[in-house]
Amino acid sequence: MAKELFNLTLTVVIDEIENILSSYPTYPYQQAFSEAGLRQDLLAYVLSRVPNKYAVIEQTQPLPKQILFPPYPRKELLDIEHYIHLGIRDILLVYSRTNSGLLQSPNFNFSASSSAS
């Protein structure tokens, strides 16, 4: 039987990114991270900063619910949430500097927003 390595942390981080981004204003946050590139950058940012958990499963088995949504200690979830918020700020700051005209709005000053964090 063939076995597959499954990143348990990936599903948790994707779910947390969705939850956290939904609490942010549409512009510029949800709008900027609706692009696949920035969403993937955020995912990579968080996964590279938290311990990842893996499971080895048989390829013929359907994924059990505890594999798709493993229980995580509260501290680890808080760490993931923390890095998501930092990643949103850091990635948008870099993006706004390299694409200066794209995130400019008369109602939004990203520099003032990020310095409050």
Brief write-up:
The chain is mainly α and 117 residues long.
List keywords for this structure.
single chain, 117 residues, mainly alpha, 2 strands, disordered C terminus
Description:
- This is Late competence development ComFB family protein.
- It comes from Aerosakkonema funiforme FACHB-1375.
- The chain is mainly α and 117 residues long.
- It has a domain at 14-53 and 67-103.
- The chain is built from six helices and two strands; from the N terminus they run βαααβααα.
- It has a two-stranded antiparallel sheet.
- α1 (8-22) crosses α3, α1 (8-22) packs across α5 and α3 (36-47) packs across α5.
- It is elongated.
- The model is unreliable at 105-117 (pLDDT under 50).
Mean pLDDT: 83
Order of adjacent strands in the largest pleated sheet: 1-2
Q: What coarse outline follows from CA principal-axis ratios?
A: elongated
State the low-pLDDT regions, or none.
105-117
Q: How many angstroms does the end-to-end distance come to? A: 50 Å
The Rg value, from CA coordinates, equals 17 Å
- How many DSSP helices? 6
Relative strand content: 5-15%
Write the layout of secondary structure elements.
Elements: E1 3-7, H1 8-22, H2 26-32, H3 36-47, E2 54-58, H4 65-68, H5 74-98, H6 110-115
Antiparallel strand pairs: 1-2
Helix pairs in contact: 1-3, 1-5, 3-5
